[in-house]
């Protein structure tokens, strides 16, 4: 900590009401937590995780007293620099995420840290969703979605935050809270803030008396517009409280803090169809869109058309080589332009009628390919994959060290074709040869993506001139929006007056002054006197490591990371590694070593290396692979030698491990859990966390035994029981319960299979216990030994091979070089066993956990199918991703497991007694945190066979 003056006073004061563990002043956390998805960076002096309105209120009062700027941040997926600061950053806690629906589900009330996708998952059983649908909805939080008026492909200008807002709780600069749904709160606010109310009322009257200004505002909000403040609130509403709440939408945290918001819900129809329309050129595509916009009903409950996404030829070309893309993309003409159309309806009959209307309206425009709507989920998902992969494709193809920039503008619909063609010419003029155009064309909203370096003054000058021309073209020539949905931020602040004119701009400055008289809430955003602010404070993007160099720091990975509430997220780990590379490049040895030392626990030790981040990442970056690489680099010669010795004597080591586990279990039968836990914690601490912590769910030892009874059957299966299952029994074993290997063999034989074991089974291992710690050589050694044994046992793949643990199966898929097919438990049960066994569905509620490997292998749906075939009541907790146990890491760092599963218990219905998964280490951690006894999915199968 290096604070002084008012910041030191502020820090000392907040320690009296906020725990120190939620306050950060060190370089690692201020840089990591201070990063958003924009291409700007400011490093905050203090970062605070806030998780209550009282904390926010007290902080705002204190910061106002000390005249210190404060910025609010939710998920940090913002793209225009509106969530960064070099002062005090308030980050909403990931646990500030309550959800409530009203009786008829016509509205939903959300706290600021609810992820948009989670709100929709909550509403899905009711056939509803929230209106806003930004591309970042899987990671963006409600506070940021509302504060930026974020929208997307389907919500347009009719279902966005502004239009679906019903009520809001706001905390103002002086710490006062207003609940717009409470008559008592409103009346109290009108008394305490009479001057604010009076001035807002005066602004509204001023606009109503200025017909030209009034008409300008109405015209500019007919298309998407998030440039500047939402002046439409002063036109659309008469009551000052309504104006205030709607001004908060799109204010980007510059007017106050959104504590809670109530949205009107919108229908989520199951019947839908899409068409990838290919037109000969941009003009034809835009003409079709204009007709659909003006002659088809859009985005209402009886809508005929919900989305129309335009993609220019460069955009289509950027994805045509990606696996799974339609082959015809490569055959399109140089000017071909696509329009991806979607229609949704409450019934299939209405959907057919919608399609007929759309095709009839545009039948006079000759397409390059025949127009065709599809209701096939696989087919239209492939089409939408094209659209969603565009930003990814350009970002992944960029030169390392450059930044991928996505801008968004909106044209009046009648100018869409001309505006698009002129943008393409500007790309050529300034040498942005890789640039693409796509977007929500139904609203005249276009995104354009290009790659830019900021490490060269000439490159910055090129960017400046390009953006100046774009601003003149969009705002002046076509009277469009310079920001349609990404927010003004710092990026477009210098151009707000250009777009709106001095009369409207002065109005915006007055709004800022009314709400924030000291100018302390997110200063410099939306309103900024510096005409060059968009050319300052660029992020450093040094070439760091091939594993992460393509990262665009969007933050899409963060919700799935098991350490996101404990230490760092994947994005933050990448930011930290880039900063270390910058320090290294600057020859700052002292700073580098200090930063690296702090990163060890937060970045290396508490990374579960589950790699779920790669599934959420637009460019597929696996930060877990980076951590494994770092662990490999940290291995000393003596550690490497020890690992080799263990690998060479693995069978003996496992035998000793089984004996020790049984001994510990025996001791635990005498010594109470509380004493065992205290003793274990003490010993682990003394060892510097090198010795594992004991857990109540720790299994006893187990020795694998050959229990086969069926021989000579025509059908055979090779069964490989993982080394952990051969060594460990079940957590919290039950009387009379079979061990897993006995159970699996029995089930296989009931299905008519003769079971074959690979020879010399005792020392065999997939290699994961070594590779996950960075011991690549030893991991590959064990994997090769196993591959040879399974090849022989299966007679070169003649017989199916079953492994009883998902993580081991995934490791074999990655390591095996012969193409040998190994079945995961889920895949084998679903594809082979279910139809060969007498399954009877039970009425007992069950909970299942899809471990990381299951998710990465794409087997979650099959897991659910098995569970629902076996039980009438199945729960798959949506808030739980990786369990955080990470092999054996949960023994050394139980806080990772606890943090990852902090919502597990509350996500399981109270009457649930049965819990299932497909990985022994995960089952230990899940049992520990849930209070249930997790078992392999094979135990569910056994229960349903009786």
From TrEMBL:
PANTHER family: D-LACTATE DEHYDROGENASE, D-LACTATE DEHYDROGENASE, MITOCHONDRIAL-RELATED. The keyword Membrane does not apply. Residues 40-268 form the FAD-binding PCMH-type domain. InterPro entries: 4Fe4S_Fe-S-bd, 4Fe4S_Fe_S_CS, Cys_rich_dom, FAD-bd_oxidored_4_C, FAD-bd_PCMH, FAD-bd_PCMH-like_sf, FAD-bd_PCMH_sub1, FAD-bd_PCMH_sub2. PROSITE patterns: 4FE4S_FER_1, 4FE4S_FER_2, FAD_PCMH. Belongs to the FAD-binding oxidoreductase/transferase type 4 family. Residues 540-571 form the 4Fe-4S ferredoxin-type domain. It comes from Sulfurospirillum barnesii (strain ATCC 700032 / DSM 10660 / SES-3). Its EC number is 1.1.2.4. This is D-lactate dehydrogenase (cytochrome). Keywords: FAD, Flavoprotein, Iron, Iron-sulfur, Metal-binding, Oxidoreductase, Transit peptide. GO terms for biological process: lactate catabolic process. SUPFAM superfamilies: alpha-helical ferredoxin, FAD-binding/transporter-associated domain-like, FAD-linked oxidases, C-terminal domain. It is an enzyme of class 1 (oxidoreductase). Its cofactor is FAD. GO terms for molecular function: D-lactate dehydrogenase (cytochrome) activity; D-lactate dehydrogenase (NAD+) activity; FAD binding; iron-sulfur cluster binding; metal ion binding.
């Amino acid at each position: 900590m290096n604070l002084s003056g008012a910041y030191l006073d502020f820090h000392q004061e907040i320690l009296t009401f906020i725990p120190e563990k939620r306050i950060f002043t060190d370089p690692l956390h201020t840089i990591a937590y201070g990063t958003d998805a924009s291409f700007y960076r400011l490093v905050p002096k203090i970062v605070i995780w806030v998780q209550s309105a009282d904390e926010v209120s007290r902080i705002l009062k204190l910061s106002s007293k000390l005249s210190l700027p404060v910025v609010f941040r939710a998920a940090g997926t913002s793209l225009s620099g509106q969530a960064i600061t070099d002062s005090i950053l308030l980050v909403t806690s990931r646990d500030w995420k309550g959800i409530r629906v009203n009786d008829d589900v016509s509205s939903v009330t959300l706290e600021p840290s609810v992820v948009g996708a989670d709100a929709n998952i909550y509403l899905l059983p009711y056939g509803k969703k929230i209106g806003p649908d930004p591309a970042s909805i899987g990671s963006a939080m409600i506070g940021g979605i509302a504060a930026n008026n974020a929208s997307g492909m389907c919500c347009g200008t009719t279902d966005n935050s502004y239009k679906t807002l019903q009520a809001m709780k706001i905390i103002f600069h002086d710490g006062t809270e207003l609940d717009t749904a409470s008559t008592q709160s409103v009346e109290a606010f009108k008394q305490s803030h009479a001057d604010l109310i009076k001035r807002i009322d005066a602004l509204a009257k001023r606009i109503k008396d200025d017909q030209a200004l009034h008409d300008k505002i109405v015209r500019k909000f007919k298309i998407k517009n998030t440039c500047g403040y939402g002046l439409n609130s002063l036109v659309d509403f008469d009551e000052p409280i309504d104006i205030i709440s709607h001004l908060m939408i799109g204010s980007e945290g510059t007017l106050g803090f959104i504590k809670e918001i109530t949205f009107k819900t919108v229908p989520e129809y199951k019947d839908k169809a899409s068409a990838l329309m290919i037109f000969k050129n941009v003009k034809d595509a835009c003409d079709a869109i204009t007709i659909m916009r003006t002659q088809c009903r859009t985005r209402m409950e009886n809508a005929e058309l919900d989305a129309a996404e335009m993609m220019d030829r460069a955009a289509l070309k950027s994805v045509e080589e990606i696996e799974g893309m339609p082959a015809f993309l490569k055959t399109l003409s140089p000017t071909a332009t696509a329009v991806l159309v979607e229609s949704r309806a409450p019934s299939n009959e209405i959907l057919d009628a919608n399609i007929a209307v759309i095709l009839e309206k545009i039948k006079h425009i000759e397409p390059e390919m025949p127009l065709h709507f599809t209701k096939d989920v696989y087919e239209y998902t492939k089409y939408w994959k094209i659209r969603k992969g565009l930003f990814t494709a350009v970002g992944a193809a960029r030169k390392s060290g450059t930044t991928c920039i996505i801008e968004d503008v909106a044209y009046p619909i009648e100018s869409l074709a001309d505006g698009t063609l002129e943008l393409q010419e500007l790309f050529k003029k300034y040498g942005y040869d890789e640039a693409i155009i796509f977007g929500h064309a139904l609203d005249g909203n276009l995104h354009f993506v290009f790659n830019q370096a900021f490490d060269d003054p000439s490159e910055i000058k090129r960017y400046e001139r390009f953006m100046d021309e774009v601003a003149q073209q969009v705002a002046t020539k076509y009277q469009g929006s310079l920001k349609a949905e990404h927010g003004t931020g710092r990026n477009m602040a210098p151009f707000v007056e250009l777009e709106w004119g001095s009369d409207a701009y002065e109005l915006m400055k007055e709004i800022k002054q009314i709400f924030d008289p000291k100018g302390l809430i997110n200063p410099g955003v939306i309103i900024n006197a510096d005409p060059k602010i968009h050319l300052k404070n660029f992020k450093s993007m040094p070439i760091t490591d091939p594993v992460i160099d393509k990262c665009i720091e969007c933050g899409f990975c963060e919700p799935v990371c098991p350490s996101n509430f404990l230490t760092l997220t994947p994005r933050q780990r990448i930011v930290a590694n880039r900063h270390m590379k910058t320090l290294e490049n600057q020859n700052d040895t002292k700073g580098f070593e200090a930063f690296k030392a702090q990163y060890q626990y937060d970045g290396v030790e508490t990374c579960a290396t589950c790699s779920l981040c790669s599934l959420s990442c637009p460019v597929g970056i696996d930060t877990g692979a980076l951590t494994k690489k770092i662990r490999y680099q940290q291995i000393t010669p003596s550690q490497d030698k020890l690992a080799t010795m263990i690998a060479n004597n693995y069978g003996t080591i496992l035998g000793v491990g089984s004996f020790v586990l049984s001994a510990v279990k025996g001791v635990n039968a005498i010594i109470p859990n509380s004493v065992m836990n205290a003793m274990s914690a003490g010993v682990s601490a003394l060892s510097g966390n090198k010795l594992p912590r004991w857990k109540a769910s720790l299994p006893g030892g187990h020795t694998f035994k050959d229990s086969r009874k069926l021989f000579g059957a025509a059908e055979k299966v090779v069964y490989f029981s993982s080394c952990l299952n051969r060594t460990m029994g079940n957590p919290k074993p039950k009387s009379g319960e079979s061990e897993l290997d006995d159970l699996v063999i029995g089930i296989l034989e009931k299905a008519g299979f003769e079971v074959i074991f690979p020879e010399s089974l005792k020392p065999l291992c997939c290699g994961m216990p070594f590779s996950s710690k960075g011991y690549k050589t030893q991991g590959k050694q064990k994997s090769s030994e196993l591959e040879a044994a399974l090849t022989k046992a299966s007679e070169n793949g003649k017989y199916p091979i079953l492994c009883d643990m998902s993580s081991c199966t995934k490791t074999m898929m990655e390591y095996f070089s012969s193409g040998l097919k190994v079945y995961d438990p889920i895949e084998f049960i679903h594809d082979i066993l279910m139809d060969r066994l007498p399954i009877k569905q039970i009425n007992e509620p069950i909970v299942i956990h899809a471990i990381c490997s299951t998710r990465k292998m794409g087997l979650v749906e099959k897991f659910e199918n098995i569970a629902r075939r076996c039980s009438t009541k199945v729960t798959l907790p949506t808030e739980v991703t990786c369990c955080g146990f990470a092999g054996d890491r949960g023994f050394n760092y139980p806080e990772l497991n606890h943090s990852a599963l902090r919502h597990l218990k509350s996500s399981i219905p109270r009457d649930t007694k049965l819990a299932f998964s497909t990985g022994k280490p995960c089952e230990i951690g899940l049992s520990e945190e849930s209070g249930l006894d997790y078992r392999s999915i094979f135990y569910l199968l056994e229960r349903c066979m009786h």
